[in-house]
Amino acid sequence: MNSTDEGKLIPIGYIRSPYKEKFAIPRQPGLVTSAISELHLVHPFNDPNAVRGLEQFSHLWVIFEFHQNKQQEWSPLIRPPRLGGNTKIGVFASRSSFRPNNIGMSAVKLKSICTKNSQIIIEIYGGDFVDGTPILDIKPYVPYSDSIPDAAASYAIKPDNLNVEVEFTQESLETLNIVAADIPNIQSTITQVLIQDPRPGYRRHSEELKTYGMTLYNYNIQFKFISANLVQVLAISKIENPEF
User: Fold this and answer.
1) pTM value?
2) Which of 100, 122, 214, 218 gets the most CB atoms within 10 Å of its CB?
């Protein structure tokens, strides 16, 4: 079967990502630049000819499916975390993952294209995909036409400036020293994710010292916001039987 059969879209590949769950995924691509994801092409698209010349582009558009949202219905109004989680706007005025068609699009930086055991792997920086995300298409990013410096962007004109400092406990640093042998960028990835404050928007101004957990690279990261501007990584533990 191909993508033209019965008008169906089928994946050309799947993402292997450090984000094993939706919680803590960056709300936009390019915010966590140290995170590396892999795009694995599948047959019949796993063909060297299909990516010939792609390495000459620095950035890519990746079109994908919000596959974990298939069972949830879309709504014409949504509450963007950027606006605190209380203000409603139209779904088409947002990048919400709950849409009439569960399709997303992200601009990412190309790291490399390699072949391992006949598998074509496209490595990218700055993705915002949960592990296992189906990829529908890849297109090269073309600066002269895709970049519009004077574009208006309403409430999303610039990234949130949260001024968050990340502090690691001695226990978590000891674990990082071991993990870094296999995942050199794990500390910077944790830091960049937490600087974005992955908590729900309505909790950002809460004084509750709640301990949260997120999963990155098959590790559970426990953290707590000591104040609005200080988050502490409490512990890091390996997940022995990861889902992916």
Assistant:
1) 0.85
2) 122
